[in-house]
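ligand=iron/sulfur cluster
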Amino acid sequence: VTVSVDQLFCAASGMCKKVAPQVFDLPDDSDSAVVLVNPVTDPEQVARAKEAEQSCPTAAISLEPA
Ligand code: SF4
């Protein structure tokens, strides 16, 4: 899947990084999350990315079929 974070909606909660640390990072000097791997192909990481999408408090994460 292709993962994207809408920088305008991201509230820098860090939830995505907590749920899927290999897919998302929230750099100390940034006010929005960044995607580390694209597209995500590993099934375990895809599952975590989906969980992060559902956990994001501002619905800033989108997943699309790669
Ligand atoms: S969970 Fe959502 S709001 Fe929080 S850092 Fe990730 S993308 Fe941003």
